[in-house]
Amino acid sequence: MAVYTDLGTERLADLIAAYDVGDLVSAKGIAEGVSNSNWLIETSGRDGSPGSQSARFILTMYERRIETADLPFFLDLLDHLSAANCPVPRTIHDREGASFRMIEGKAVALIEFLPGVSPTAPTATQARAVGVALARMHGAAQDFPGSRTNDLGPGENAATLESCGSDALAQIDPNLPAVVERARTITEDWPSDLPRSIIHSDLFPDNVLMLGDRVSGLIDFYFACEDQMAYDLAVTHAAWCFSKDGSRFDPALGRALVTGYETVRPLEPRERDALPLLAEGACLRFVASRAQDWIETPAGALVMRKDPMDFVRRWNTYRERGQEAFA
Amino acid sequence: MAVYTDLGTERLADLIAAYDVGDLVSAKGIAEGVSNSNWLIETSGRDGSPGSQSARFILTMYERRIETADLPFFLDLLDHLSAANCPVPRTIHDREGASFRMIEGKAVALIEFLPGVSPTAPTATQARAVGVALARMHGAAQDFPGSRTNDLGPGENAATLESCGSDALAQIDPNLPAVVERARTITEDWPSDLPRSIIHSDLFPDNVLMLGDRVSGLIDFYFACEDQMAYDLAVTHAAWCFSKDGSRFDPALGRALVTGYETVRPLEPRERDALPLLAEGACLRFVASRAQDWIETPAGALVMRKDPMDFVRRWNTYRERGQEAFA
After folding, report:
1. Would you say A55 and A21 are in contact if contact means Cβ atoms under 8 Å apart?
2. ipTM
3. Terminal CA-to-CA distance of chain B, rounded, Å?
4. CA-closest candidate to residue B317, choices B286, B276, B281, B285
5. Which chain A residues contact residue B30 at CB under 8 A?
6. Domain ranges of chain B
7. Average pLDDT taken over every residue of chain A
8. Chain B environment of A120 (Cβ under 8 Å)
């Protein structure tokens, strides 16, 4: 949650002039995204009418974590999904047709602004709508020509967690070192033959915009990759169906999410069988990345550290409830 | 630059429902204001037309420094100036007519959104326009019935600086303790009989929105108070006519600012005579507040510390150049 770079109004105006979107009218640095700087931009619009829906954009500057080589995949994916009527923001291309530009060695992209707010206390109706939107996205991405490997699979995540070291993990929480062993089991049992597509793989409520019960936007595709679709459903389940610290599971939300998904794409029996394990793998991923961030981020730094234990608690729920967590 | 409070979408929606502005359509935490949390809010509008200019607002939550008792002064002032055609955002009143509401012990106000961007490298033409806008604001505020004493006068600022202690000041910069003596002289020589009005007293470029060379918004009136108008011009001069670190003075900007001001309200000879001293007093104010913040803010805290020496350098320029800095 930060604006890392102070671009300066004059440079912003020059940048916007590279696009056929009219003149810069307003620019506010917004507190969104952990790895990027983002601005909510308003322009006079192509037809010079300020305030029209089409004249607002999100300008993203990629600060870290995202490889420039991956940007065409992410940005083309937005265009592909948007063209297929998924509620995904289009990439605005510059006058030369490029989907991103470089400023002082950093890539920037201008992206369609979508209305909507992210629910902080989702209802079952909202979770159902998210399940529908996720399944539609999986369907629409089937014929996307780009490809990107998931570099955050269970093996990588288990290795990341292990590399933190027992002592450092124990300093975060005494119960954290115990999950390293579990991580190994997950990796060994991980399925590899479930139906695949491009998956979002980070569909937390923060990355969904809603107008009431309607999904108006799926955003932040910067972890998207080619992988098993049921794993994406499991990630979304872990992200939506618990209280923030993971201590309270809401079965009604879980049920609604899966039901919504299946109205568009019914799960195969082997996918359904795999859901608890896939959800454990989803928890492993966030435990590993949070533990690593925790250790690498000095206390009192500008970035707020997230507690890995939030996802150890979810993990415990999936181990305890198994299939029941999805029914 | 921060969003201090995470309000949560549902609470935001409830809050917006207290105003006759339509439904919440979008809310982005914006990185503006050092003492408040701010959101750029979009609603469906009274007539249900999303995206119309009138359906965007800034929601401000007052986190610290601002006394709730002062809020009616600040917010009524916006309405008064806006009604007098100053480019100042109106306060949106709730359905009961209140200009602010309380949430969890904190005051919040909904304020009109104004287009425009803050210049980071102002031109003389822009400085002139700001001078014009400032003089008009001083004129429009003459019949504002509210009053608020300036609690950041030279005496208070000198006392603040002195209370930091020579050792602490020297730790910030070896040249800083020397200005304490100067601060005393300023206080002794300070005029008290110059023409008065309500002044903005913090009109940095950050607090001015412009569309090209036109001033589209004067914002952030949270230091406004009743005081000598020429002092406000001096503050604005110190804020606009130097490079960020104060090492480079641009006489053309200073000239343009004063010329613009005088097209609306010509300065009396005694005001003009006082300008160098008033500008020194403006520098004293920012040196004192920055030194205090520096000492009170631990290194590595979430708030960026500003170097008091930026305004010692400006101060030196005013001492060296005197009247010449305004000609």
Report:
1. yes
2. 0.86
3. 35
4. B276
5. 28-31, 40
6. 9-112, 124-326
7. 92
8. 8-10
What does the H/E/C string look like for chain A?
A: CCCCCCCCHHHHHHHHCCCCCCCEEEEEEECCCCCEEEEEEEECCCCCCCCCHHHEEEEEEECCCCCHHHHHHHHHHHHHHHHCCCCCCCEECCCCCCCCEEECCEEEEEEECCCCECCCCCCHHHHHHHHHHHHHHHHHHHHCCCCCECCCCHHHHHHHHHHHCHHHHHHHCCCCCCHHHHHHHHHHHCCCCCCEEEECCCCCHHHEEEECCEEEEECCCCCCEEEEHHHHHHHHHHHHCECCCCCCECHHHHHHHHHHHHHHCCCCHHHHHHHHHHHHHHHHHHHHHHHHHHHHCCCCCCCCCCCCHHHHHHHHHHHHHHHHHHC
Q: Please, which residues have CB within 8 angstroms of residue A289's CB and are 6 or more apart in sequence?
A: A152, A157, A160
Q: Domain A9-112: give its CATH architecture.
A: 2-Layer Sandwich (3.30)
Which residue of B24, B25, B26 is the best one to mutate when testing the A interface, meaning the one whose CB has the most A CBs within 10 A? B26
**Inter-chain CB proximity B29 and A298 less than 8 Å:** no
Which CATH number fits the domain B124-326, given the four candidates 3.40.50.2300, 3.90.1200.10, 3.30.365.10, 1.10.260.40?
3.90.1200.10
The tokens for B126 are 């822009």
Residue keyed to tokens 């207290």? B18
Q: What is the pTM of this model?
A: 0.90
Both tokens of A41, joined, read 């931009």
A17 touches chain B (CB under 8 A): no
Residue A161 and residue A287 in contact, taking contact as beta carbons nearer than 8 Å: yes
Who among B9, B30, B56 is closest to A31 (CB)?
B30
Q: A300 is written with which tokens?
A: 């009192």
**What token pair was written down for A257?**
């999410």
Q: Output the pLDDT for position A303.
A: 61
Lowest-pLDDT range of A230-234, A323-327, B11-15, B303-307: B303-307
B227 DSSP β-pair partners: B197
- Using one digit for the tens of pLDDT, what is the confidence trace for B261-317? 999 999 999 999 999 999 999 999 999 999 999 998 766 555 678 899 999 999 999
- How close, in Å, is residue A114 to chain B by CA atoms? 9
- d(CA B78, CA B74) in angstroms, rounded, equals 7
Helix pair angle (A309-321, A229-240), 10° resolution = 110
Residues 101-120 of B with CB under 8 A from A: 115-120
